[in-house]
Amino acid sequence: MAKAKSVLQVMRVGKNAGKLSKRPTEATDGVDGKKDARARLGELTDELSTLQYALYAEAKTALLVVFQAMDTGGKDGVIRKVFGPINPQGVRVTSFKQPSQIELAHDYLWRIHGAVPPKGVIGIFNRSHYEDVLIRRVHHMDPDAVINQRYEQINEFEKYLTQNNVVIVKFFLHISKDEQKSRLQARLDKPDKRWKFEKGDLAERAFWDDYQAAYGMMLSRCSTSYAPWYAIPADKKWYRDWAVASILVDTLRRIGPRIPEPKEDLNALTIE
Amino acid sequence: MAKAKSVLQVMRVGKNAGKLSKRPTEATDGVDGKKDARARLGELTDELSTLQYALYAEAKTALLVVFQAMDTGGKDGVIRKVFGPINPQGVRVTSFKQPSQIELAHDYLWRIHGAVPPKGVIGIFNRSHYEDVLIRRVHHMDPDAVINQRYEQINEFEKYLTQNNVVIVKFFLHISKDEQKSRLQARLDKPDKRWKFEKGDLAERAFWDDYQAAYGMMLSRCSTSYAPWYAIPADKKWYRDWAVASILVDTLRRIGPRIPEPKEDLNALTIE
After folding, report:
1. Chosen from A87, A100, A192, A201 to mutate, greatest number of chain B CBs within 10 A
2. Using the beta-carbon criterion (under 8 Å), do A88 and B76 form an inter-chain contact?
3. Residue (of A160, A45, A39) closest to A91 by Cα position
4. Predicted complex ipTM
5. pTM, whole model, 2 decimals?
6. CB B263 within 8 A of CB B74
7. DSSP β-bridge partners for residue A95
8. Contacts 24+ apart (CB under 8 A), B115-118
9. Chain A residue nearest residue B196, CA to CA
10. Which helix (H) or strand (E) holds A123?
């Protein structure tokens, strides 16, 4: 575990984030191939289930898990694999799509705040407020000055949440441009995936470099001590799932939820 | 399957519901013991996963699943067992607890309507609007005339939903008074369950007969052709899980969701 831990530590984005292009999209460090990774994922999700039960019973802390990635990056897949085995009552997934008219009429954190999980619950964001410094930056949908303000606004918002019992962990699923190509091709080729395909996906792919720059800035400006970003090498799905599950188990262990004592003295109770 | 189907049909509450006390809390019809029931549950949840994927892809219909039961009746357990294996992105559980001040300031269906699942999603209600004709009837929290109006209001509300692409199926998990006793005792005895125990649970148990009468009235007044109630014999957990999963698979098959064709002509597309 000591070795695995240091492997995971490398994925945590620190103060001097450096270039995104220097970060690997492929890695095998910490596991012994696919079979080992899958076996250990099973152990990790068992532990996640146990920790989730205690988190729910204690009801003192919420866990907010943010996923961001390029299209086909694996957000849906990792959510299914890592959170699938957990009691659905304790997990709440919010997928942020293009904002509605009502959402656009509010400040950009309004819809986000409404979806923050309550104490005892694991909230999962499939996309998030970071879209407001990603797609909106790449396509110049807001003035640069407005977007540049957001990094600090987001940091303050996340700090406020962590000061109020919401633990935050953020995952950027990092894939290569080649890997995206083969996954888009697979969507075209697999009959039960074709419905997902839109030509717009290809149009976005043409902005690959701009997106990488926007992700890089997001990581270096918004990975904080209280709400860290992890850049997960995500070309190999089994590695991605193992890494995300490992970091979540580590995060929940540090929260250390404990099943509480009964609210009342239950001794000498008789059930009629 | 023919036999199993007729077994399940018996659980569906019809026009002449009859006395709740005539309905079994224990049954084994349709399965060959626990081992068989558990094996078939695995097959059923596999099929549920496949159907859920198509429901999500098609995004034309929502499925709303309502669970009501006496305390310890198994709502949490059945949700974990039947929906646990399904992609958490397509499932949304709402647990209705004692209404908040804000909720009480609105009509009783207001918080319910807000939690109705969107198209493509399976929404699960752990308790529901039926609390307004159960606990509120048993403890005379509203005048009888007000409560008596609600059955029809609920039927109209559910009819409206089903006319607007929300398919509704409702499960009453039916346990015996003896079974509740042994489950409450187990909560007292198991260290990791004791935190759940409240003396108030015993106070409610004293109203057993009043609750059975209120459940009976709910079943006979609100099991409609468009939003049926099923009374599930729930003393045996493995039977309960099999029955609920079977009825859900049957319901989803009748919805018959199909993965849609691609939105655009994808032929001759090249990914650069």
Report:
1. A87
2. no
3. A45
4. 0.85
5. 0.91
6. no
7. A126
8. B116/B62, B116/B64, B116/B161, B116/B166, B117/B62, B117/B63, B117/B64, B117/B92, B117/B166, B118/B62
9. A262
10. strand A122-126
Where does B156-228 show beta strands of DSSP type E?
Answer: 166-174
Chain A residues contacting B via beta carbons under 8 Å:
53, 57, 76, 79-80, 83-89, 91-93, 95, 124, 126, 181, 184-185, 188, 191-192, 194-199, 202, 205-206, 259-264, 266, 269, 271-272
Q: What is the pLDDT of residue B263?
A: 76
Work out the percent of chain B whose per-residue pLDDT is above 90: 84
SS3 A166: strand
**In degrees to the nearest 10, what's the CA dihedral of B55, B120, A203, A188?**
-10
Which chain A residues are closer than 8 Å to B272 by Cβ?
A: 181, 202, 205-206
Q: How far is A148 from chain B (nearest CA, A)?
A: 31
Chain A hits for B199, CB-CB cut-off 8 Å, are: 264, 266, 269
Residue A94: enclosing H or E segment and its boundaries? strand A91-95
Strand partners, B68: B172
Looking at beta carbons, which residues of chain A come within 8 Å of B57? Answer: 195-196
**Radius of gyration from C-alpha coordinates of chain A:** 20
| Nearest CA among A53, A61, A56 for reference residue A169 | A61
Contact B263 A181 (CB under 8 A): no
Q: What is the pLDDT of residue B196?
A: 85
Average pLDDT over residues B26-49: 96
Quote the tokens at residue B259: 């993965």
Q: At what angle do helices B2-11 and B237-255 cross, to 10 degrees?
A: 100
Q: How far apart are CA A48 and CA A43, in angstroms?
A: 9
- 3-state SS assignment for residue B99: coil
